[in-house]
Amino acid sequence: MTDELDKSIPREESLMEKIAEKIHDHDSSSSSDTEHEKPESPSALKAKIYRLFGREKPVHKVLGGGLPADVFLWRDKKLSAAVLGVATAIWVLFELVEYHFLSLVCHILIFSLAALFLWSNAHSFMNKTPPKIPEIHIKEEHFLLIASALRNELNQAFVILRSISLGRDLKKFLMVVVGLWIISVVGNWFNFLTLLYICFVVLHTVPMLYEKHEDKVDPVAEKTLKELKKHYMVFDEKVLSKLPVASLKAKLG
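Now predict its structure.
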């Protein structure tokens, strides 16, 4: 009798151990499931948010970074205000006062050279130190970098214009035609200097405002682009697809 009791006790203990292991495994699996079901971090969610023009970098990096981006985004308010003030003064001089560019450059040089000449000759009589005029040397590397960047942009523009001229991309052709037509209309409203000044003011204000309100602007821009894509698909289906472009491509090819 005692032997039977001794045998039944370990069996019960082993059965209880198995049940406990199963409960432990179930708890661990449920905890792992809850870990997988945890909400994503705010940074991961923010990365999935649509950004205007599909950008993945901050606005500061998109503008090139460095001092120009700081000026356009008003990181240094005094410097940005000074740059905008100088641009406004130049526009007022040339557009409203109708001052000529060559006359302005000559007058600035005359005033600067006369002031430096008098200061250099009068320092001995006034017991003041002579002006320290630095030696200015323009490095060849800067001109080469600018020329190389300009050459790359021009080559890319020529490639696009050639592909459009050969009738390979109807979408680009329509975009270029519409863009040139808009520029011609705007050119009738303003002269070249005023247009440059307007573009400068836009660059000085729009990126700064967009950076402050990008979380509100991006969803609206996403909806607008979706609607434009829908309208373009309808236009493509009803108009562009019926044009004899495919046959022309086959003949050219």
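The chain has eleven helices and no strands.
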